[in-house]
Amino acid sequence: MRALKKGNAKRVWSLLLVLALALSLAACGGEKTPSEGDGNDPGGSEGGEGSAYYNETGYPICDEPITLTMMCVTTGNPDLNDRIMVSEIEKRFGIKLDITGYASAEEFQTQLNLAMTTGDLPDLIAPCNAITMGQMREYAEDGYALALDEYADLMPNMQALMEEYPEYEKYATADDGHIYGLNSIEVNEFGRVDRVYINNQWLENVGMEVPTSVDELYEVLCAFRDQDANGNGDPNDEIPFDYAASNYYDDYMLLAAFGLNTKDANYILTEGEDGTVGFGNASENYKAYLKYMKKLYEEGLINRECYVTTEDQRNENVAKDRTGFFGAAAPFVSAGQDISYDAGFSWVGGLTSEYNDQRTVPMTNTLSEGIVMFVNAETEYPEAAVRFLDYWFSEEGEVAAQRGWEGVTMDYEYNEILKGDVATLYCPEGYESSEDYKLNKALVVGPFSYCSRTYGTHYRLLSTASDEVMQSEEVLDAYGWAVLVGNGLRQDGIVEEEVFPRLVYTEDESSRRVSLYNDLTTYIAAQRAEFITNPDVDIDASWDEYLAQLDQIGLPELLELEQAAYDRYNGN
Amino acid sequence: MKTRKRNFWFNGDKVFMGISYVALALVFVLTLYPMIFVLSASFSDPGAVSSGEMVLFPKEFTLEGYRYILKYNEIWLGYANTIFYTLVGTFINLAVTLPAAYALSRKELVGRNLILFLFMFTMYFSGGLIPSYLNANSFGLVNTRTFVLINGAVSVYNLIVARTFFSSTIPEQLHEAARIDGADMFKDFFKIVLPLSKPVIVVLALYYGVGHWNEYFTSMIYLAKRREAWPLQLFLKEILIQGQFAESALMAGGLSTEEIAYLFKQADTANMVKYGVIVVSVVPMLAIYPWLQKYFAQGVMLGAVKE
Fold this sequence. Notes:
The complex is a heterodimer. Chain A is of the alpha/beta class. Chain A has two domains: 55-192 and 369-456, 3-Layer(aba) Sandwich (D-Maltodextrin-Binding Protein, domain 2); 194-363 and 501-571, Periplasmic binding protein-like II (D-Maltodextrin-Binding Protein, domain 2, 3-Layer(aba) Sandwich). Chain A contains 23 helices and 18 strands. In chain A, the strands form seven sheets. Chain A has a five-stranded mixed sheet. Chain A has a three-stranded antiparallel sheet with strand order 10-7-11. In chain A, strands 4-13 form a two-stranded antiparallel ribbon. In chain A, helix 5 crosses helix 6 (166-172) and helix 21 (507-533) runs antiparallel to helix 22. Chain B has a domain at 82-225: MetI-like fold, CATH 1.10.3720. Chain B has helices at 2-10, 12-42, 46-50, 64-71, 73-105, 112-124, 129-138, 145-150, 156-169, 172-180, 185-196, 198-214, 217-222, 232-252, 257-305. Chain B is mostly helical. Chain B is globular and about 80 Å long. At the A-B interface, helix 1, helix 3, helix 12, helix 13 and helix 16 of A face helix 5, helix 7, helix 8, helix 11 and helix 14 of B.
């Protein structure tokens, strides 16, 4: 009996071994085909290289369809080749895209490094802001990136944009005079303003107005704390100010109140009258801001756990009506409600203080810090690639990148309230919203939307609408937060001010800057939390020590470097 | 009375047992709590979980998460792939590890110490990601299932476990007897060694199997363009990333409010689904363990009663 069993076991084992070998061999053989297919590609295209495979103007770009490979970071499902946009691009431009999408910036970065070392870099690389200008400079130096400016003749739309917004060319041009990567540009004021909201019902319950100065804000927050502001019968469950403590809208708004216009609370560069670069985090204004925040924190006006709460918890606080004052994309987003939910809030901004008597609203840089797209220097089809990229700089291209094409994924619908046409995405059956349709079926979101000049959107209509329209209830219900922001900006005495411009660094500067910047901002962020939350730390007493530490980390060297870049920027 | 009591309490064995029980109870709670938490969270409202209201038992009971998982086809695709990688991969592992361990356990093998040294060298030093990738790429193995199956086919640690088992539990005399009866090396391996080594085979299969089941890094790097070949863990990772994506996207800027609103909704779904997916992905391993436990016990006994 037993012997028989053992014999069986042996037979099974040897059989399985043979199977394993056969299987792995078969698998090897089977999977080789796609790579052989890849090998054929360059051969096929060589024939087209001699004659003009592309048209210099007009569309399609290629009469005989070509294939461009692309890698990108994407939101939503990274399986991108079956998007409507991809087939539409093939139809319109004669360019067949073969896209590999990555769901996170880290994954993209790993695959980009691997692609560079194996020589498998695709034709188009769309990091969608996942790589910095400094990295772009290195890749260019190593010969991976095509100099786009050499094809400027084929890019009339990009040239037109640069004429209109000279800062684009200034920032995109590396110190060797070439443009390697494309940044994104956003000139939509609604997207460039810090969004901090206060709950109207809470204000009404405590009998106060929307604050316009830091002192008024302090009083409002005290009232929120002491009274039953949310009206649920419990005067002690209110979080007056749900501070994000993470370099976010609420910080920028408060820093601006103390005269520091920035979008990086840990690294505030300021511009002196004589063109010198100053450091806001070492200024008296910043000290006053810290003292103010410390006061709010010590008096229980700020959420005690602000340094450990997550975005989910902050959203939950808005949804459960536990907080009356917070920074967020929009109240309805945080609360998970319909957009009409925003009508119950007001925008807060342009506060004044003893350091700043002008109601100032800092405007985010129009240009993205990172790179959205670049072209492989070794691509077979540089002309077609640059012509393709140029399309998205046009008005039609901008709308297409964000909503697709008329009659394909969207229609222009006349908006009765705003008296104008708005490109409105379809929402076919089977999709919960038009955003769902857009992100998962219609478009490849990210790589092509480097221009945001509000073409075809309701923002364009909102920014020119009359005060009467902006004050109406129906427009508020329909467009929520944007109307709050728009009305906020239209208040008397509000001044919009650009923050410190983005600068271009040389390769040496850039690598030195990265490490100094990281050390310095890490220290400043930690020290900020320490100043605000530690009751044993006296800001005045430790200030000199703080300044000495900044110097020791390398602030003087960093400022020297920024000054050099800034001088070049102004000299251009 | 007093002395009796003292004896009772200070009896060495009892103290030892007492400490053991306390320590074990602690470890038990520490390992059990995350499991119960995940299980409860999978049946709770995601809001209650993220706000910290759910501590031990489900709060605001819901089956939405599981309902969603049932409809989410890619989870099942990943499931099928993972089962494939686990079964076939483990089989390949055993098919190469066991013969190698057998050969290295035999004194007749010339230079076996050198070979073992070369094996062990790889335990401490490896080429790193990029050279490995270049290597795989030149063999045409990138974006193939084959690579995931054969990558790391031999774990040197497991190889040493098996080699030690073979040389310490199977007496030399048995091999000699087999030889005298006319068995060659293959016969010795298949007829004598393997049938006597069930415990170690099971242990290795389990080590390798769990490794395949949990593996995601290799697939993430080497299967980037083959979504249809992704194991469950990669889809799970994607769901977890979606849960955090809205937040990081919000901080990074560059998205329209409509997009952010949608991403938050997606994050809600992801938060709802993620614990359910963890449960679904862990259950098979949990179900297999008890069945294999007897072999673990047997393995220990075999070592103890030998000689």
